[in-house]
């Protein structure tokens, strides 16, 4: 890789860093007020997209271990954001669903990020630098 290309890619990496920080800042403040963290937001997000997702499928989606998922899942359950029910096809499998409280919080968090994405995709000049 030549120096000019490396410099260009380093600038893009910096943009990704700053964009991600901006993208997660407000949701992070919201989850903090609820006594949870970004990992909880990710769990809520994927359960909302796939109601009835199994714990194993969520583990694969998030690419985390059972140990890493256990504490946040327990916390979300105890706080009334998610419920875990046995599958009708295999009672050994636990399916995850958001409660109304969980749906409301997930929507609030994701709406903030969807609005940011809407701005980016309606301003093509924002993407021109990367292309």
Radius of gyration from the alpha-carbon trace, in angstroms:
18 Å
Average pLDDT metric: 91
Helix content: 55-70%
Shape: elongated
Number of strands: 3
Explain the overall architecture.
- The chain has about 130 residues and is mainly alpha-helical.
- The protein is about 70% helix and about 10% strand.
- It is built from six helices and three strands.
- The protein has a three-stranded antiparallel β-sheet with strand order 1-3-2.
- Helix 1 runs antiparallel to helix 5 and helix 2 (about 40-50) packs across helix 5 (about 100-120).
What tags apply to this protein structure?
single chain; about 130 residues; mainly alpha; 3 strands; elongated
Topology of helices and strands:
Blueprint (H helix, E strand, L loop, with lengths): L2 H31 L4 H12 L3 E2 H8 L3 H13 L3 E5 L7 E5 L1 H22 L3 H4 L3
Helix pairs in contact: 1-5, 2-5
Quick take:
The protein contains six helices and three strands.
């Amino acid at each position: 890789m030549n120096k000019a290309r490396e410099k260009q890619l380093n600038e893009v990496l910096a943009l990704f860093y700053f964009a991600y920080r901006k993208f997660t800042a407000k949701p992070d403040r919201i989850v903090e007020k609820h006594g949870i963290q970004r990992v909880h937001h990710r769990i809520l997000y994927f359960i909302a997209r796939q109601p009835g997702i199994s714990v194993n499928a969520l583990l694969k989606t998030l690419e985390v271990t059972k140990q890493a998922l256990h504490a946040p899942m327990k916390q979300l359950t105890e706080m009334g954001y998610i419920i875990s029910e046995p599958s009708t096809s295999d009672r050994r499998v636990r399916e995850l669903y958001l409660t109304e409280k969980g749906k409301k919080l997930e929507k609030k968090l994701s709406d903030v990020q969807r609005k940011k994405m809407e701005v980016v995709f309606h301003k093509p000049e924002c993407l021109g630098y990367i292309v």
